[in-house]
Amino acid sequence: MRSRQPSPEPTYAGQDLSFYVTTPIFYGNGDPHLGHAYSTMAADILARHMRQRGEDVFFLTGTDEHGEPIAQAAEKQGVSPQELVDKSAASFRDMVVRVDATNDFFIRTTDQGHIERVQAVVNKVKENGYVYEGTYEGWYCPRCADFKNENEIGPGDTCLIHEIPLDREQENNWFFKLSAFQEDLERMYEENPGMIRPDFRRNEALAFIRQGLNDVSLSRSQLSWGVPLAWDPEQVMYVWFDALLNYYTALGYANEGEDLTDRYWPASWHIIAKDILKFHTVYWPAFLMAAGIEVPQRIFIHGYLLMGDKKMSKSLGNVLDPFEVIEKFGADALRFYCFREVSFGQDGSISTEGFEGRYESELANDFGNLASRSLAMISRYRDGIQPQAEPDPLLAADFDGITDRVRALFDEAQIGQALEEIWVLVRRLNRYVEESQPWVLAKDEADAERLDQVLYSLAEGLRVLTLLLHPYLPNSTDILLAALGQADLELAAYGSRPGGTQTEKIKPLFPKL
Ligand code: MSP
């Protein structure tokens, strides 16, 4: 449901109906892994939920394709940077499809549309007086003709490759007056505590800002793989400013012939992990202020998925391969597991055993089995027709307010908490089946009315939970909604649909392996 329809219960005053969510754009010199998929799935869960609420959603992801590491990786592999990023962008696009993300656009920072808009914004920043020429100082290897990062310097300031002393060199480039925004940034985060979530990350950002902000290089002169500055084409943009601007430039050209900027900017949520906090909470809003562009509304900073107590990384060889999991269990299972197992916002460990445990006990048993047996009983006892009956007040008490609670949690991007709230009711519905024992009621004609009520209520409970679970489990809930005869995705309240709908039996949603 992507149309712009007002939700039937717009309870959050002051919130407009446009919702713009982004993931980081991933480096175009690597292969996608579960960490990248994690941010993508989180943004997708938010996007899907907001569409269910009738919001006008735009969801952006993509690849970060400029800069020195990319140029170097290409050189190492003996390919052109363009060839390298083309290949990498294709594999990230594929990852996005495989996790069932419903992004509206996939930006590549090598897009001509992006490059032109980056130049325009930087020109503006310069016009506004926040750019000046300065000197970058660093260690230089004459044989490599390259400035060295700290981790490229050998003992006694030598070149690791050539083992010769490095020269202290200077490079003229353009600087961004980050220091001019120290007070504005500090005030902004003090006055708008909700802008950075979770709150402890806001404190980190504030602590960083209060240390004092130094101006930063806006350009590099020794590099050609980047966006040239319009007023000095010998220099290319420092890759972080080029990359951050993707969130803004994409709206200008994502839909051909249509500028979506007014419709969606400022972004509702940037979803990122803690590794890039400084760039998003300090550099990015300062740069936008310098350009006279509104800052994003909110930034959610999640933690790392760990294997054991280590960060998952390819070099450590400890990655849970998302594609293997999807192949074997489906994307729904992966989406569910990541947000069920790890508190969104914190670091958390994942494992193959943990995955298999939750698949079996929660997806196959708690939810899949509840769905199959409820539909099977409606089929057996009532020819598949959801009876006409009053909603059982026993369940009404539990379901009361669930949709509002989930909505409120989603407003804070608390997608793990929201899933927990929903799961409490999945368990409740399982207990309801055990308590009410429809198979016993079915034996005695005198209990027919009670059986009607139980089956009606089960179908209603299941319908509401299925709608709420849709963002997490888009495939299995689609099957289930069709079986429940539920035509649209809009969030609904328990008891709001009258009986009489034809339902169907289903095969197990999460077959046991
Ligand atoms: N290109 C920059 C981002 C520019 S955004 C304007 C970049 N790319 S990256 O490929 O390194 O991706 C980093 C992001 O990937 C993290 O911020 C996070 O969203 C995701 N993750 C990578 N590894 C992760 C984990 N192990 N766990 C959770 N998320 C992780 O930085």
Question: Can you give keywords for this protein?
Answer:
single chain; 513 residues; Rossmann fold; Isoleucyl-tRNA Synthetase, Domain 1; 2 domains; 4-stranded antiparallel sheet; elongated; binds 5'-O-[(L-methionyl)-sulphamoyl]adenosine
Overall description:
With 513 residues, this protein is α/β, with parallel strands linked by helices. The chain has two domains: 18-326, Rossmann fold, CATH 3.40.50.620; 351-483, Orthogonal Bundle (Isoleucyl-tRNA Synthetase, Domain 1), CATH 1.10.730. 47% of the residues lie in helices and 16% in strands. The strands form five sheets. Strands 3-2-1-14-15-9 form a six-stranded parallel β-sheet, with helices on both faces. The protein has a four-stranded antiparallel β-sheet with strand order 5-4-8-10. A hairpin with a 4-residue loop joins β4 (131-141) and β5. α2 (68-77) crosses α3, α11 (322-329) packs across α12 and α13 runs antiparallel to α18. It is elongated, with a radius of gyration of 27 Å. The protein starts with 17 loop residues before the first strand and ends in a 30-residue tail after the last helix. 5'-O-[(L-methionyl)-sulphamoyl]adenosine is lined by residues 24-27, 35-36, 38-39, 64, 243-244, 246, 272-273, 275-276, 304-305, 311-312.
